[in-house]
Amino acid sequence: MSAYQLQQLRVLLSCAYEKSAYYRRAFDEHGFAPQAMKSLGDMRRVPLTDRRLVRQQLEGMCTTSLDSPDVEMVSTGGTSGEPFRFIHPVGRSAVEYAYLVTSWERAGYQLGMPMGVLRGRVVEPDRNGFYHEHDPVLRHHYYGNFHMSDENMARYLEHIATIGSCFLHVYPSSVAMLARFCLRAGIEPPGNIRGIIAESEIVYPEQRKMVEEVFRCRYFSCYGHTEKLVLASECEHSHDYHVWPTYGYFELLDDAGRPVRTPGQRGEIVGTGFINTVMPFIRYRTGDWATYVGDRCDACGREHVLVRDIRGHRTQEVLVTADGSEISWTALNMHDDTFMRVRQFQFVQETRGRAVLHVVPGAGYSDEDACRIQRNLGRKLDGQLTFTIESVEAIMTTAGGKAIYVDQRIPGVQVRDEATETP
Questions:
Q1: Contact (Cβ atoms closer than 8 angstroms) between residue 321 and residue 384
Q2: Local confidence band at 416 (pLDDT 50, 70, 90 cut-offs)
Q3: Which pLDDT tens digit goes with each residue over 206-227?
Q4: How far, in Å, CA of 12 to CA of 350, rounded?
Q5: End-of-domain residue from the set 189, 223, 257
Q6: Is residue 243 located within the same domain as residue 392?
Q7: Partners of 84 in the beta sheet?
Q8: How far is CA 90 from the centre of its chain?
Q9: Cα 401-406-408 angle, rounded to 5 deg
Q10: CB-based contact 273:230 (threshold 8 Å)
Q11: Do residue 40 and residue 109 come from a single domain?
Q12: What's phi and psi for 366, nearest 5 deg?
């Protein structure tokens, strides 16, 4: 596997050197020649990158034109709370989906099985007000996780019971809402749910325990990035994450930038993705931290890097609607131009059903941008929560520099302090 990774890195880094103005300059400054790589250890000579650098060098890091028909612009909030833009090859989703399906098979999923999906998709109600859409090709049933009232959750569960042996594909926060509803209402969940695949948010042990007790099935998680750097999936025999060695090059570094090799030691996840060759992310600091376990799993025999206790990516901050339902911030995150001219943003909520969206304007921000934000977010919120927009000079972060997307001030709503989210 090391030989495969070395070959992939030579190809990727050579492409970056030959076609990217930024990487050619950076490699030359560090005396690094991609084709001269003799071992994976040579990667330590390559400079690290991060979000700040990508924002500054976006066009210079690309190996092709931003106008190419083979690429598309992606936008995400990122872990810093500032809008983050980069480009991807248009065909990357098929590659990633193959890895995900293979990962899900560890939990018992088989391609073609029905899936009940409660994630960030906007689902339109039918004539009976039921928030459900069906993809007959993938056999995915999408339910409106922006509409998680008790009445709607009861309808979701009733419908899930009719789709046959299935898995749920969820945000950790959305399945926790379902589990709490079952407990609160004394409802027995459908017996046809064979497993739960929870992704895109931090998985908390107490949440996992509650959900598994309520649904009586395996709660399985994968870790990855919109940037397509590293993909890690839980083992079928434990909750440790196996890092896919063919998806990207994974490093775990301590505060001094040294490789973490001692079991039990924590480090920052640094990734070099193999999928994105149009804008390579090379030795990219994710801001996420994990605990090193080892390089081989005795339970399953895979000789992949194992980590656990991943912390630092999207937190489970929620907005509360007028009827008391919760909407996860993750579901509201926009992957388009909604926040294109906004530097930072944060919801502040003191009253159910209403909130204020603070924005730190960027260059060129105008009333037109505010209207676009209202329109795009309003479509997802669907009248359940109204908000006004206020421009501010700055938005405070936590002591560890992490953004708080929802400053939740309603008494009784669970708020996680940073100590439970980051090392």
A1: yes
A2: very low
A3: 889 999 999 999 999 999 988 8
A4: 49
A5: 223
A6: no
A7: 76
A8: 19
A9: 115
A10: yes
A11: no
A12: -145, 180
Tokens representing 404? 């708080």
The residues, ordered by sequence, that sit 6+ positions from 74 with a Cβ below 8 Å of its Cβ are 85, 86, 87, 88, 226, 335
How is the chain split among helix, strand and coil, in percent rounded to 5? 30, 25, 45
Q: Is 243 exposed, middle or buried (0-12, 13-18, 19+ CB in 10 A)?
A: buried
Secondary structure, 3-state, 255-315: CCCCECCCCCCEEEEEEEECCCCCCCCCCEEEEEEEEEEECCCCCCCCCCCEEEEEECCCC
135-174: pLDDT as tens digits: 999 999 999 988 888 899 999 999 999 999 999 999 888 8
- Buried b / exposed e along 182-203 (16+ C-beta atoms within 10 A): beeeebebbeebbbbbbbbbbb
Report the alpha-carbon distance of residue 212 to residue 219 in Å, rounded: 6
Structure tokens at 127: 């004539």
pLDDT tens for residues 232-268? 999 999 999 999 999 999 999 999 999 999 999 999 9
Q: Which two tokens stand for residue 134?
A: 């069906």
- Of 166, 128, 123, 129, residue with least CA distance to 142: 123
Task: Give residue 185's domain range.
Answer: 95-223
- Pair (152, 85) in one structural domain: no
pTM, to two decimals: 0.80
pLDDT band per the 50, 70, 90 thresholds, residue 107: very high
CATH number at residue 396: 3.30.300.30
Q: Where are the alpha helices (DSSP H) in 35-191?
A: 51-61, 92-104, 150-160, 172-185
Cβ neighbours of residue 412 under 8 Å, at least 6 residues apart? Answer: none
Structure token digits, residue 106: 């560890």
> Does position 326 have pLDDT exceeding 50, yes or no?
yes
User: How many domains would you assign to the chain?
Assistant: 3
Q: Which two tokens stand for residue 233?
A: 């999936």
Query: Is residue 149 within 8 Å of residue 201, measured between CB atoms?
Result: no
